[in-house]
């Protein structure tokens, strides 16, 4: 490990996570109900390195995380090698998939590319602990879920946002009035 600096400010994950109030909402994939066209539009309209997968837009209940590059490759492969895949084909991240939902074109099943236990912290996690977790686990990003007993009781994680290593570097730089490039992180 390179020498590292301690982070002593009293900020919380909610102060660093994206999206900010004024930003567009988090770009997520739903575990079912999206078509190949919709997923490809999400890929071309954004440049994020990954997308959280949720049960539905309404619940924002976290299922996992998919890397952009895995999504791109898998859809390309499915279009090339799997018969009958068209823009209207459903993209499914669910465990059980019926072969042809509602008699439509065959679906693309992408359960295999989800990280089903992505590291998630709550919005109330202090940033000094978050920085420590990023360093110790060598994370590139981590998801932020809602704090609260309700969500613990129901064992579901309601997704609120995402923090990347770059977000942390920018935050550390802001707090100490420095250039993010000058911060020794790992
Ligand atoms: P990096 O921060 O290394 O450039 P990304 O390109 O993935 O990594 O993210 C760019 C910015 O967008 C970061 O501020 C991050 O918090 C935010 N972000 C990452 N993924 C998403 C997403 N799926 N939806 C909305 N914002 C995201």
Count of folded domains: 1
Please give the number of β-strands: 9
What is the count of DSSP helices, taking H or I runs of 4+ residues? 6
List all distinct small molecules, including ions and cofactors, that are bound in this structure.
Answer: adenosine-5'-diphosphate
- Helical coverage, percent range: 25-40%
Structural class: alpha/beta
Element-by-element helix/strand order: HEEHEEHEEEHEHEH
Name the features.
186 residues, alpha/beta, CBS-domain, binds adenosine-5'-diphosphate
Textual characterization of the structure:
This protein has 186 residues and is an alpha/beta fold. The chain has 6 helices and 9 strands; from the N terminus they run H-E-E-H-E-E-H-E-E-E-H-E-H-E-H. It has one domain: CBS-domain (Roll), CATH 3.10.580. Strands 1-3-4 form a 3-stranded mixed sheet. The chain has a 3-stranded mixed sheet with strand order 2-5-6. It has a 3-stranded mixed sheet with strand order 7-8-9. A hairpin with a 7-residue loop joins strand 3 and strand 4. The N and C termini lie close together (6 Å). The structure holds adenosine-5'-diphosphate. The site of adenosine-5'-diphosphate has 12 residues, from strand 9 and helix 6.
